[in-house]
Each structure stands twice: as C-alpha cells, then as structure tokens.
C-alpha cells in the first residue's frame, strides 16, 4: 500500500512539473534555406505559448507584426535573446529589399538602391516589427541601413558597419533587461537605436521623426504631471475627514 502511495505521489509530481513547464513561453529561431529572389536564407520563428505552437515563416512580416500585441515584455526579451544569435550572420537573405509598413506611405516612399540584405539585418528588422508594432514605421520600413556621415547605404555583407548597428541593439537589450519592469517599448525607447553612426534609412531620411519625438517627450511629461496631480488629489481625499466637520464647543461660557 505504501509503495502505491509513493508511486502516486511521484506520478503526480511529474505531471505537475510537466504541466508547469508546458505553460512556460518558449521561442526558437532557425535559419532556413530560401530560393526566392536570391539563393539565400531566411529566419523561421517558432513560439510556444499557452499550450499552443505558432510559426512565423521567413518573410511573413504580417504575422511577425501581429506578435507585437500578443507577447508580454518578458516574452519579448526571450525573443530578443534568440534573435541576437544571428547578429553576426552576414549571409544573403533569399528575398530582395521590400518596403513593409501598413502606414509607411503617409511619409512618402524613400528611394532605395540596395536590393540585397543579410540575415543579421533581417534579425534586427524582425525585432523592430515584433517589439514596436505600428511604431516600426518611424524606424525601418525597408531592410536597409545607412551611414549618417555620408548618407550612403550599407552593403548587405558590410560586417564592420552592420556590427556598429548590432552593438546598439545589444546595448538597448542590456538597458531593457535591467529596466524590464518600467520599459514599455514606446517610441522614446526606440530612439536608443538612433544614437550611433549607422541607422535605418527611414529614420535618417524621415523629417517628421525628430518633431514627433519632441512632441512625444512633451506628452510623456504631461502624462507624468497629470499622474502626480491625480495622486496628490487622491491623497488629499483619503486624508480628508468624512462627513461634516464636528462643531467645537467653547470651553468657557461667554458672558452676555
């Protein structure tokens, strides 16, 4: 009888551990052979969440974009860690450069000469889509990097200049990881990717970006001020006596 009880406890424990692990989020990014516009490769992303498996096949930007709203901050961080593995992969992507952004045309279309891009650039581009969603239009509508100094587009296999950009992403990753509880992946966070000599072509050539950033900073400050004012008001309400104030009787009778 005791043996049966022990076995039952062990089986229950195994089931509990398995059940718990099944609920955990996992992501796997693999490099797949692609022969589309060029003989190259693409990135496939497999995500497991809430007992369901979902796959983003190479160049399925619509689906990648949708995950910006389906993953929480900690899950996005795991995704970023997997994508960073490909920051040193300068092999050719099997697809040609193509604009992707549901809202890109409101800013006009940039003239792009590059037709090829690497897996390293694809990894960063997917991160943009899956982290920032609609804000990606302010950063990278094309899979093209540019040198700020001479306004020249970066070749797909220019490892030196691509590394300058991936270093920004690594620094941004460290900042996100250390401040994960307060990070909200807003357009202000996105500006961290504009600090180096290399940036996305759209971010450099899109005039409204700096104005938008300035407006957003003012909005953030106003939101914080309103929050503080509301907190102060709530504190006042909480400390205010309920009901009518008591009437104070004089200690001595006043002679008439």
Describe this structure as you would to a colleague.
The protein is of the alpha+beta class. It has one domain (22-224). 45% of the residues lie in helices and 12% in strands. It contains 8 helices and 5 strands; from the N terminus they run αβββαααβααβαα. The strands form 2 sheets. It has a 3-stranded antiparallel beta sheet. Strands 4-5 form a two-stranded antiparallel ribbon. The longest helix is centred in the last third of the chain and has 32 residues, at 208-239. The chain starts with a helix and ends in a 17-residue tail after the last helix. The relative contact order is 0.10. Mean pLDDT is 80; it is low at 8-22.
Distance between the termini: 96 Å
Structural class: alpha+beta
Oligomer: single chain
Give the count of structural domains.
Answer: 1
Counting DSSP E segments of at least 2 residues, the number of strands comes to 5
Note poorly predicted spans. Answer: 8-22
Percent of residues in β-strands = 5-15%
Shape: globular
As laid out across the biggest beta sheet, the strand order is: 1-2-3
The helix content, as a percent range, equals 40-55%
Sketch the topology as an H/E string, one letter per element: HEEEHHHEHHEHH
Mean pLDDT: 80
SS field, number of helical segments = 8
Rg computed from alpha carbons, rounded to a whole number of angstroms: 27 Å
**Largest beta sheet, briefly?**
3 strands, antiparallel
Question: Key features?
Answer:
5 strands; 45% helix; two-stranded antiparallel ribbon; alpha+beta; three-stranded antiparallel beta sheet; 256 residues; single chain
């Amino acid at each position: 009888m005791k043996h049966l009880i022990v076995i039952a406890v062990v089986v229950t424990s195994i089931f509990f551990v398995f059940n718990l692990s099944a609920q955990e989020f996992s992501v796997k990014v693999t490099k797949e052979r692609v022969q589309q516009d060029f003989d190259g490769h693409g990135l496939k992303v497999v995500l497991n969440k809430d007992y369901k498996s979902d796959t983003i096949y190479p160049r399925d930007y619509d689906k990648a974009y949708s995950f910006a709203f389906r993953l929480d901050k900690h899950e996005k961080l795991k995704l970023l860690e997997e994508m960073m593995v490909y920051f040193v992969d300068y092999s050719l992507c099997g697809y040609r450069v193509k604009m992707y952004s549901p809202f890109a045309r409101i800013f006009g279309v940039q003239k792009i000469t590059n037709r090829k891009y690497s897996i390293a650039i694809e990894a960063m581009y997917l991160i943009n889509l899956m982290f920032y969603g609609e804000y990606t239009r302010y950063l990278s509508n094309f899979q093209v990097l540019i040198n700020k100094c001479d306004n020249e587009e970066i070749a797909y296999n220019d490892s030196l200049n691509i590394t300058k950009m991936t270093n920004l992403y690594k620094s941004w990753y460290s900042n996100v990881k250390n401040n994960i509880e307060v990070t909200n992946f807003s357009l202000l966070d996105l500006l961290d990717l504009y600090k180096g000599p290399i940036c996305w072509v759209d971010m450099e050539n899109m005039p409204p970006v700096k104005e938008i950033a300035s407006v957003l900073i003012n909005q953030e400050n106003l939101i914080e001020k309103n929050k503080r004012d509301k907190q102060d008001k709530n504190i006042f309400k909480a400390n205010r006596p309920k009901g009518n104030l008591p009437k104070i009787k004089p200690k001595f009778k006043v002679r008439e």
